Amino acid sequence: MAIVQNAAPRRATITQGHEADRRRQRLDRGNARWRSFASAHPRQGSGRRRELLEHQEPRVSVLSCADSRVPPELVFDQGLGDMFTTRSAGQVLDSSVLGTLVYGVDEFDTVLLVVLGHDSCGAVKAAIRAHRTGVLPPGHVGYLVGQVLDVVETVPEQETEKAFLDACVRANARSVAEQIREEPGLREAVEAGTMKVEPARYDLRRSRVEWLDDASRSGRGGEGVPAPRARGR
């Protein structure tokens, strides 16, 4: 009996893991369309809107920077109801952001949670400036910059300022992802294998999303990817 009782949760974990991989592949296909100027804008018609009137089940959650150049639904070419999106400058976590992420997991059974940073991030630039000068901006902006500064101060100096900025962007996305993995209310899903948390970086020039855990494991930083060619209008 013990074997039978343990088999169902194991099968559920495997199924959820496969679903997370499948969802990430869908995001990859959407980003490929976006960067080749071939966005399909799927699941946005009248039928989809009627379908979502009473019910939604976005199995993917995205925490992204609030930067106007990085709208997740466009970057991944997804439709209505596909992603549960939360945005804050520098992907900074506070109680309301964490509460939103936990709500997505509890309410919609999130299988994939993406932390999406991007190059040239203004919040990271401000944290680097505070790191150099020792001065935080006043008020609420100072709170936000201080959260990113904690990460910036752990990043080794690089050969150029541009390289240092990019290293900080990557470190910040990975740090936020790790905080999410350890957060009560989310850690249980991660440890059970029912949800994956994936840090990523969006390249503004190439319009490309790079999965940072993949780059870390393979030793690649994602450089050398050609910029998309604009199609004739």
Automatic annotation (TrEMBL):
SMART domains: Pro_CA (SM00947)
Keywords per UniProt: Lyase, Zinc
Keyword Lyase: yes
Protein name, per record: carbonic anhydrase
Superkingdom: Bacteria
A Pfam family of this chain: Pro_CA
InterPro entries cross-referenced by the UniProt entry: Carbonic_anhydrase, Carbonic_anhydrase_CS, Carbonic_anhydrase_sf
